[in-house]
Amino acid sequence: MREDRTLIVITHLSQLITLLTGFGSLILPLILWVTQKEKVYQMDSHGKNIINFQLSMIVYCIICVPLILLFGLGILGFIVLGIVSVVFPVINAIKASNGETPRYPLSFNFIS
After folding, report:
1. Residue 8, Cβ neighbours under 10 Å: how many?
2. Cα distance between residue 16 and residue 60, in whole Å
3. What Å distances lie between residue 4 and 7, 15, 36, CA to CA?
4. Where are the alpha helices (H) located in the chain, listed in sequence order?
5. pLDDT, tens digit (0-9, with 9 covering 90-100), for 72-94
6. Of 96, 94, 90, 103, nearest to 3 (Cα)?
7. 105 near 85, Cβ under 8 Å?
8. Closest CA to 46 of 84, 86, 87, 98
9. Is 0.85 surpassed by the pTM of this model?
């Protein structure tokens, strides 16, 4: 196994592809994780954290849809989720470049 912090940082930042294309925040990191988890040191743990975070964001978005009818709380939820889905990948990419194993808050453990 080789150590490649740059690829791990790119994997964290690949979640931001949604800002350009409107989709892909789960697909691109998933492809990078599956193809490189056995070749790059610590890619497996970083990839699992990223996939769990993205799946959690999808669950939270599904929860926000019916909350729109309840005093517009779903719209506030979508705004918060939008901010969280941009800020935490950037913060965790910085942590990964420093050699730390970042954790995403509020993410369910779908893949362990």
Report:
1. 28
2. 18
3. 6, 18, 10
4. 5-13, 18-21, 27-36, 43-67, 73-97
5. 899 999 999 999 999 999 999 99
6. 96
7. no
8. 98
9. yes
Q: Which helix (H) or strand (E) holds 98?
A: none
Q: Which residues pair with 2 in a beta bridge?
A: 40
Where does residue 27 rank: exposed (0-12), middle (13-18), buried (19+ CB within 10 A)?
middle
Residues 85/15, Cβ–Cβ less than 8 Å: yes
Dihedrals phi, psi of 2, to nearest 5 degrees: -110, 155
Residue-wise pLDDT tens digits, 9-63:
999 999 999 989 988 899 999 999 999 999 999 999 999 999 999 999 999 999 9
Kindly report the number of other CB atoms within 10 A of residue 83's CB atom. Answer: 10
d(CA 85, CA 43): 20
